[in-house]
Design goal:
Layout: H1 2-21, E1 23-35, E2 47-53, H2 60-116, H3 119-125, H4 161-166, E3 174-175, E4 179-185, E5 189-193, E6 196-200, E7 203-209, E8 212-219, E9 224-227, H5 236-259, E10 262-274, H6 280-295, H7 303-323, H8 337-353, H9 357-368, H10 371-374, H11 378-392
Parallel strand pairs: 2-3, 2-4
Antiparallel strand pairs: 1-10, 4-7, 5-6, 6-9, 7-8
Length: 393
């Protein structure tokens, strides 16, 4: 009996040692990646030209001239604005007098009713004596006389078609005619609605690639809110300048998505199980993925990137093969639910980082089939929700 007891204790200790040996470590891996454009162009054809047609042909002299004209209009309208202010004040006084009279009559009636009550009734009703509260008397606000100030040229819209064309481009491209960009832009339109300012600026963007139309879009036709005040209370020149820049930024964004290689750095968390012998293949997979991920360079037509991706795929294959060994019913199995959780999370993280959303979604769907068995931690559940949002957004 004693020997059996000792043997049983040894088995239990061995099982505990095995479970504790399943230590999963995490490493944050930073890497560079180059996002391919929607319409890749051969290196010899990476050149473009821009033509902008717009009503803009504004110089510094035009801005100063307009400022003086606006000032003269305010001077010409000043006397009438004073008359209007006095008339408005008179109307407000009438309304004020009527309101005061109404409140005084109400106060008189309530006071008479209160005074008729006996002391006992006042206590029982918790009645308080009425209070007369009158609104403030309207004040006459006479507009200040107009004073001319030189326009702030920093906020002025000083552009012409050549200036606008110079602000449009594709990163990594030179000037040429392989990509022909034509922009037809109207002037910014302003309108008021419910005390707020709105604007639109219909702009047609046409892009031809070797004579073939690849992009044909009309932008900014809908009015968008630009200020919570009406147009007569905002600096229209400044807002027009900002709106034109918004149009230019959108055009450059569309061109970048379609033709430019986007360089970016990213950091992802990758996990691996640390245990000699049983998990040597998983250790090898981790080395395949992390070392080759670090070798990636954000450079177009960079041959070593292809080799790095091929080697990473070797690691991914090992992870997928390991998932076929998982025993979700036995916590003591070498390939148990804990191992499955980290493998699935690695596959989802890595495929998202490499822009392989469909592969990430497939791993997510497979993982969700076994979520009940995995019993993820609070942190793992939160991270999985975030990864899911990246896949479907």
């Amino acid at each position: 009996m004693k020997l059996n007891f000792i043997f049983s204790m040894l088995l239990t200790a061995g099982s505990l040692a095995f479970i504790q040996a399943q230590r999963i470590d995490a490493e944050n891996v930073t890497f560079q990646l180059l996002r391919e454009p929607l319409n890749p162009v051969d290196a010899q054809n990476r050149n473009f030209s821009v033509t902008v047609n717009s009503p803009y042909n504004i110089t510094k002299e035009d801005v100063t001239k307009q400022a003086k004209e606006d000032f003269q209009k305010r001077v010409d309208n000043y006397d009438q604005s004073v008359v209007d202010a006095k008339a408005e004040h008179a109307e407000r006084l009438k309304d004020y007098d009527a309101e005061v009279k109404k409140l005084q009559e109400k106060y008189k009636t309530e006071s008479e009713q209160y005074n008729k009550l006996k002391a006992v009734e006042k206590i029982a009703m918790n009645a308080m004596p009425p209070v007369l509260r009158l609104p403030s008397r309207p004040q006459l606000n006479v507009p200040a006389k107009p004073v001319y100030t030189e326009p702030d040229l920093r906020n002025a819209l000083i552009v012409d078609n050549k200036v606008l064309a110079s602000q449009i481009g594709i990163e990594g491209f030179t000037k040429g005619n392989a990509i022909e960009i034509t922009v037809d832009m109207e002037r910014t339109n302003f309108q008021d609605n419910a005390g707020k300012s709105f604007a639109n600026q219909p702009t047609k963007l046409v892009v031809k690639q070797n004579g073939v139309v690849k992009i044909d879009k009309t932008l900014f036709t809908d009015f968008q809110e630009i200020a919570s005040s009406p147009t007569n209370e905002i600096n229209l020149s400044s807002h027009e300048k900002m709106y034109v820049q918004k149009v230019i930024n959108k055009i450059n964004e569309i061109l970048a998505d379609n033709y430019a290689f986007a360089k970016y750095s990213s950091t992802i968390k990758l996990e691996t199980v640390k245990n000699k012998g049983e998990y040597d293949d998983l250790e090898k997979a981790s080395i395949y993925v992390t070392t080759n991920l670090k070798k990636m360079q954000a450079r177009p037509d960079y041959a070593p990137n292809k080799t790095a991706l091929e080697n990473m795929d070797k690691g991914i294959t090992i992870w997928k093969d390991a998932l076929k060994k998982i025993n979700y019913d036995d916590k003591k199995a070498p390939y148990n639910a804990k191992i499955a959780a980290y493998l699935y999370m690695n596959l989802i993280r890595l495929n998202l980082a490499l822009g392989r959303k469909s592969e990430a979604e497939k791993s997510l769907n497979d993982m969700q089939e076994h979520l009940v068995d995995m019993k993820l931690s609070w942190d793992q559940n939160n991270e999985l929700k975030g990864l899911e949002q990246q896949i479907y957004n």
